[in-house]
Amino acid sequence: MLQSAEKVDFHCHSTASDGVLSPAQLLERAIGVGVDCLALTDHDTIAGTRWLVEQGVPESIHLIPGCEISTLWGSREIHIVALGFDLDNPDMLRFLTAQGRARWQRFERIAEKVSRRLPEYSLEQCLEGALGQARQAQEKADPNFVLDDQDIQIGRPHFASWMVQQGLTPDRNAAFDKYLSAKRIGNAKQHWPAMADTVQAILSWGAVPVLAHPGRYRMTGMKLQELIRAFSQAGGLAMEVVGCQQPHGERETMAKYCEKFSLHGSMGSDFHGPWSDYVELGRLGPLPESCTSVTELLLPA
């Protein structure tokens, strides 16, 4: 049984979505840095977690099924982490199938926007270029984990890598600045479900809905509290309080919001790759004492 003093990380990504390590590499790294309990929370997919379970998870680490789900609160994209569900829950599988369709529609919308700005390239060339980058990223990381094309997650970073490959921009940052910023491609998130509906769906799976990285939504304190209140009223159970590279005082503020809105506190690095010593699996400070850990909901004594 998981103990509160053990090292946990309930938010990270693999090549099943937009991370750079394969699920196996991620798990190996987590074990190497002493993580005792891990949730792989790829965007709108459980392909990585399912693959790990099928391969067999070492006894030295506890793997909790997880997924980071894209939702809408009004016109804002908000991410909810679902933790602790049955990988074969039919309602969950139907929900994520719909999310996969929404992601593909988003991919096509971005490709359409990009092709309009690059008249020398057809829509099909833009689509295949980004898909090829996503496929290559999986093959490069681990040839044993390569999803079928229809299951591969494609996002703006893959378009950016394709643009660099084509010599259109010197680097990915330039690709975002010139072609792929929200201002350039417009609203590509309209297909996501409402946050409140998503929270209810997660609860119906017997899972724990966690508001992801609340400090990153660039909201005023008042607006953020409106979001947290709406999440809590919808049935949300926890919120990420401890992360990596947080501004001074953020975790204490988030702990106060947890207490105010009766939420448990969660901890997650949001690790995508080994780019910085400051963003590492399990490299998380303790929850403030006023917070009740989400582990009590995931693995009750």
Protein described:
With 301 residues, the protein is an alpha/beta fold. The chain has eleven helices and seven strands. It has a seven-stranded mixed β-sheet. α3 crosses α4 and α5 crosses α6. The longest helix has 28 residues. It is globular and about 60 Å long.
Write the layout of secondary structure elements.
Layout: E1 8-9, H1 23-32, E2 37-40, H2 47-55, E3 62-73, E4 76-83, H3 90-117, H4 123-141, H5 156-165, H6 172-180, H7 182-185, H8 195-204, E5 208-211, H9 221-233, E6 238-242, H10 250-260, E7 264-267, H11 295-298
Parallel strand pairs: 1-2, 2-3, 5-6, 6-7
Antiparallel strand pairs: 3-4, 4-5
Helix pairs in contact: 3-4, 4-5, 5-6
Sheet with the most strands: spatial strand order: 1-2-3-4-5-6-7
| CATH topology descriptor of the domain at 100-185 | DNA polymerase, domain 1
Q: How many distinct beta strands?
A: 7
What assembly state would you assign to the polypeptide chains in this entry? single chain
Q: Could you estimate the helical fraction of the residues in percent?
A: 40-55%
Report the β-strand fraction as a percent range: 5-15%
Known CATH architecture of the domain at 100-185? Orthogonal Bundle
Overall mean pLDDT stands at 93
- Give the biggest sheet: 7 strands, mixed
Q: Stretches where pLDDT falls below 50 for ≥5 residues?
A: none
- What is the end-to-end distance? 7 Å
